[in-house]
Amino acid sequence: MVINKILNFLCCAIIAGRILINLPDAQAESDWAATLYGAVMLDGNLSDGSLLYSGFEDSFLTALALTRRMTSFYQEKVDLELEGQIVKHFKDQDHLEFNGLGVLRWLPFPWDAHLDTSFASGVGLSYATKIPEFEEERRGDGQTEQLLVYFMLELELAMPASRHWSLVSRIHHRSGAFGLFNGVTGASNACSLGIKYRF
Least C-beta-crowded within 10 Å: which of 79, 119, 190, 198? Predict the structure, then answer.
């Protein structure tokens, strides 16, 4: 049920993008990227490894991210990126979330000639426009904050003939960074699917 909703959302987004935004083909080395993804909240924790065995919650988000590659290093194998996100939560909670982060992206994989792959990890700050109800229910009253750390993991897959469009899967994580933010030790996790356009 949840997976069907996310897949329907992604299909509609791809069709709308193709019809409404007649964008020219981008280069594989494009510095900018826009990512649109939908996610479902998970009941497991990233810190204790239970995320692998998580169930889905009745809480969802849609995010739009804009990313800029700043530089490449380690023989052009790693990109350093800056990203900003606007996130809308819905169903069991209703608020906006704004995230800013730095990202490291590993580029070369041995199968890139057949399926262009990259893996990224990013960390930064996350601000929710109000205390997230999902986090408050899971952590307890007063055990979360509007401003927390944001962390993400992303797997990106693209066909070599169409590298400007790609499919992405992300872990979308907010936490107190082991108590750094007013003693908050955990907050929320979401698993997402989305599309990315490089330009």
Answer: 119
